[in-house]
Fold this sequence. Notes:
The chain is an alpha/beta fold. It is built from 15 helices and 25 strands. The strands form 7 sheets. Strands 15-18-19-14-13-21-22 form a 7-stranded mixed sheet, with helices on both faces. Strands 10-9-8-11-12-24 form a 6-stranded mixed sheet, with helices on both faces. Strands 1-5-4 form a 3-stranded mixed sheet, covered by helices on one side. Helix 6 links the parallel strand 9 and strand 10. It starts with a strand and ends with a strand. The site of nicotinamide-adenine-dinucleotide has 32 residues, from helix 7 and helix 8.
Amino acid sequence: MQIIQNYINNQLQNPIDNQWIDNYNPSKGEVYGKIPNSNQKDVEQAVKAAKKAFPIWSNTSIEERSEMLIKIAQLIEQNFDEFVKAESQDNGKPITLAQKVDIPRAISNIKFFAKAITQYNSKSHESVHTNSINYTLRKPIGIVGCISPWNLPLYLFTWKIAPALAAGNCVVAKPSEVTPMTAYLLSKICIEAGLPAGVLNIIHGLGQTTGQAIVEHPQIKAISFTGGTKTGEHIARTAAPMFKKLSLELGGKNPNLIFADCDYEKMLSVTLKSSFANQGQICLCGSRIFVEESIYEKFKTDFIERTKKLKVGNPADENTNLGALVSQQHLDKVYEYIQNAPNQNAKILAGGNKVKVAGFENGYYLEPTVIEVNSNRCALNQEEIFGPVVTIMPFKTEKEALEMANDVRYGLSATVWTSDLNRTMRLSNELEAGIVWVNTWLNRDLRTPFGGMKDSGVGREGGFDALNFFTEPKNVCIQYD
Length: 481
Ligand code: NAD
């Protein structure tokens, strides 16, 4: 049994009321650890520690904060294999994905914001006719809350805490209770790095207990949240009467528009990734595939053939393409969508079944699944499934493709495959999405604004947008003679 503890005031400690929840290994469907189910008392202790630390941390020089973050990133690098193994075991994702994406990106997040803060600046406005100058101070907010989901655990956890800390805030953070392990390893790293007590507090537990206590705490002035749209809505409702600053990164149902003039081979291999990477559990996965009529049949044949070749198996095996889904509950939810497909006039073209992996019979495995739909209005195309399930459907004209792409409550990302520059310009203007990828997918530059439109969220993370979120602007106006 691996016991995870809270990290408060630079100490690893058990939850005050000694309440625990099970931590599962999804590849085996077995409990392998216990994590605290913290409550208001633990959050209160963390807030007290953060409050004490804030005057000191917010007054350290930018260089000192930057160096501390770099040190933390380097310590993760030194323990790279341990982090990779822990992420794969906790989440069920292929070890190769944790190795190539999750942990390297967590390290990059921390290094990026360690450097970004040294370049962060504010504006000044001179009004000669009134003999005055305005300038903007950007002050850390104080104590901020960071709440992250289970799909990219350390990747998204560090994406929030790194800019928060770089900007001089003290943090009370909660990773998903479904994947708490790498955040716990990070707390050990912070102790080793000598991060001052109370600057970062990592508290574990369920959303409705620990998460709720963080959102409700009156001294936590801003909440950066990534997770489901429904949870985001609840958090917004809780936080609004306290006028907390909110950044909400929520669900998606992203369109993938494939035109006949695209680079077909590149499109096919990237579309396979954008459909099934991380078992389709990436908010940016292109789960609605629309294909121009003239290449639809060819695409259908080739895509199905490639999908069927993907190997579902033990995440620790380097040849595995898809590991386990994150939990039994999530597997049940995704599977229900597949079972309901025939009721929506939809046809399962590939996959659709649970998989029994030899030696891991109780794991949460599902075949990569391709479903042909005949309307964008069906639940399969309108609701976020968040698993290895994509729909495909032909379109006749660019206008029709655009209308279907936008006809959904979400607006996180969109992908377009075409070699026509004019079409690229038209669609990137018209698509209702926070990110539009053209002839690429999940190609991320950390300086860019990241986030969604519509029900996919409020606000933007990344680059200076994240530092803007984690600071309070103060305008100073001086008149001179
Ligand atoms: P979730 O909303 O269930 O949980 C996310 C986090 O919120 C967890 O830490 C959870 O414990 C916490 N939480 C739950 N209820 C809470 C409450 N009442 N108060 C405070 N915190 C609470 O989401 P999930 O199932 O962990 O993650 C999957 C979802 O995340 C998907 O919808 C996916 O699209 C979304 N996601 C979005 C992005 C993005 O950048 N837009 C990135 C990754 C995942």
